[in-house]
Amino acid sequence: MSTYRLKNLLSPRSVALVGASARPVSVGRAVLENIRSAEFKGQFGLVNPRHAEIGGIAAVKSLDRLDFVPELVVITAPAREVPGIIDQAGRRGSAGALIVSAGLGHGPGSLHEAAIAAARKYGMRLIGPNCLGIMMPAVSLNASFAAHMPGAGNLALISQSGAIAAGMVDWAAQRGVGFSGIVSIGDQIDVDLADLLDYFAMDHKTRAILLYIEAIKDARKFMSAARAAARVKPVVVVKSGRMAQGAKAAATHTGALAGADAVYDAAFRRAGVLRVSDLRELFDCAETLGRVESPAGKRLAILTNGGGIGVLAIDRLVELGGIPASISADARKKLDDLLPPTWSGANPVDIVGDADAARYAAALGALLADPDNDAVLVLNVQTAIASAADIATTVTELVGKYREQHRRWAKPVLAAWVGADQNIIQTLSGAGIPNYPTEDDAVRGFMHLVRHREVVEELSQVPPAMPDTFVPDAKAARQIVTAAITDGRQWLEPVEIKHLLEAYDIAMVPTYAATDVKQAVAYANDMFAKGATVVLKIISRDIVHKSDVGGVILNLTTPDAVRAAATDILDRARKLRPEARIGGVIVQAMVVKAKARELILGLADDPTFGTVVVFGRGGTAVEIINDKALALPPLDLQLARDLIDRTRVSRLLRAYRDVPAVKPDAVAMVLVKLAQMAADIPEIREFDINPLLADETGVTAVDARVAVGPPQRKFAGSGPANFAVRAYPSQWERRLELKDGWRIFVRPMRPEDEPTIHEFLRHVTPHDLRLRFFAPMKEFTHEFIARLTQLDYARAMAFIAFDGETGEMVGVVRLHSDSIYESGEYAILLRSDLKGRGLGWALMQLIIDYAKSEGLKTISGDVLQENIVMLEMCRQLGFEVKPDPAEPDICDVRLKL
């Protein structure tokens, strides 16, 4: 699993530092002093071949001479020594190493490769190299060269920048914010963002995870881990390089629109990650998420002693999508009784500039009791009349009592004391009240909470592998694309595109290819006979954008006009682009729909995240208008609707004045079909439909471009190799009949199965639970079950079995691959009253077949020695069974696939 041995690295019982220097100003010495000053409670050893002691701490010459086996080896030695140190540590039995040293290089024959090889030989995990280090307050470990050690808390920080991690520590010290862990990952030689997301998602000490990202190496792994983590706790990211352009020049409009940062934005959105724009907003997010839970809704009540700042807060709230809370009749009566008649009488609740602590307490109490709001923001502008510090103290006391009385469902309280002294900040922070320098920051903090709740709801939706409403002719479509690639072409011809769209039930205007002027007139005459107007377009594999050479002429109504236009187009193209191959002209029926909207839909290929779906306002000025949104496939209708709603042109799809609304879901369905086409035909590199005309009757593609090429396998495992997000694998649904005629239905697990799992566990005996989890299990929390059901179908898979008649859940088998996608660890659990009927055997066969289809090399598992039934079944299935040398009560079972 991706978290394999990470606990040993991040919560070690013993540590050795290799490479500490006697020089006062050095990385090794700084790390040594930090470990010492943090007062690490476990065993600690210092290794240095040239010094018997450093800073008063005795050193040994090599790891072999330590009188204990260090779980974690911290390396600050020169790069050339790193592979040898890792090999020594592996021989001694260390779980892993933190490589602070830089300069290992990359590529074949590098120290980087040698370090990886040494670690894999012993199953070690590596953090770094070229990193700040790790800071784990819960175990008093500061194995870094940061200037300060953070306090203990419930935020985890994973950073690709050591400087950013150090800055967060300094900020946290000023705000009283603590961390469950800070990890600087450096060059990610082994442990990466995804591994650490998995780890902190399962860490009960962590309430929220903060990320600083510069680039993602393994997009599918990251998406898998981020989606799983975001379902159980907030994940917030700030990414640098927002203004960077795409990695390659794009030939299509969709390719040009899908710039690198826009794709990252779409990926974060799909993963359920909250993206913030800069460090200040990341700090504010940390302030909010580290102290309070998400509210039930987005209705915010604002209490203030200054009307202006209250109105500014309301403005920002509405702008960000929040709702100004109404005031219930009961709350209004209380406020009328408690406040002077000059109070605002509405939200924001302005209690006037001379408000003292007692007036704040009275108003806040009424708002906290009001069911018409989901959270309260308390604002204070300091005056000479009332003490801002006294008001802060009173507010914290009241909030403390309120939380004590409503432990399970206390609504969030946030604060902004404008120009507050440090003692006021400490008062509010000490009481666990998120507080900010301005009303704008406070409202943004509230909306971060709201967005997290919405994210959890969105992530519970599982896009199907194939929409049920249409069945494309994927075979015919593949033949079109394959023929073009075999012919050495990078672009489909217009008529081929029309047939491709027809295979996916996407309407396109009548389109014909004419090789010369005479044929163009003949095709046009057929269209004239049907009352159509004609448009001509140049055919050339070398001229992608036809309008660049005047290669499009509209509104042709007679044969003579067509003859003249065709001649003109061909002559102009040959003159302006003499090197271009000219194939003739396209003759199309010209669609005139005065009230239709021009849209662009398409597919682009991103070097990091694979296929991306693009939607926006179409036309020739599409890049200039730049009204677009991106999404990662696969899509269902709801995801497609969300993609559309994120554009300005979406408003034009609704009815206005005398213009009817576009046919419901007509555009969304085309997006779903395009996403399915990308899954079926990975040879499609880029795809434009521009424009797609949409009105009350439906949609019609007018022009399209399709770039093709040999498929590129970007991601490991089954499913579309060009998709960073795996679809729900409906192809693995099975109806099985067991040996006694018992019929069962087996399917991949879904997030909404959580209640089913809880009910299933009621039918499993404590003894069987102990055999499965290796410890007595008295309670299964929501968080625990959520981690089991929130699958990504990439690294983790689970099949649940249902009784064919009753529909009750009767068993589950799961598989989680390791971080390099070579082996998987399985686990299985059956209802105790249904064992011995062949269900276990059937589920094990299914998970073995699945592992083979994923390209895994081995399946392994841990089985208690006393679980003789499972051990015997493993032997019959061909598993090798060996005692675990470290755990005498456990057998390691392993099957080579």
UniProtKB/TrEMBL annotation:
Cross-referenced SMART domains: CoA_binding
Entry annotated with the keyword ATP-binding: yes
Highest classification ranks of the organism: Bacteria, Pseudomonadati, Pseudomonadota, Alphaproteobacteria, Hyphomicrobiales
Name of the protein in its database record: GNAT family N-acetyltransferase
SUPFAM superfamilies listed in its UniProt record: Acyl-CoA N-acyltransferases (Nat), Glutathione synthetase ATP-binding domain-like, NAD(P)-binding Rossmann-fold domains, Succinyl-CoA synthetase domains
Keywords for the protein's UniProt record, in alphabetical order: ATP-binding, Ligase, Nucleotide-binding, Tricarboxylic acid cycle
Domain N-acetyltransferase positions: 744-897
InterPro entries: Acyl-CoA_Synth/Transferase, Acyl_CoA_acyltransferase, ATP_grasp_subdomain_1, CoA-bd, GNAT_dom, Ligase_CoA_dom, NAD(P)-bd_dom_sf, Succ_CoA_lig_flav_dom
The organism's place on the tree of life at top rank: Bacteria
Keyword Phosphoprotein listed: no
Pfam families xrefs: Acetyltransf_3 (PF13302), ATP-grasp_5 (PF13549), CoA_binding_2 (PF13380), Ligase_CoA_2 (PF19045), Succ_CoA_lig (PF13607)
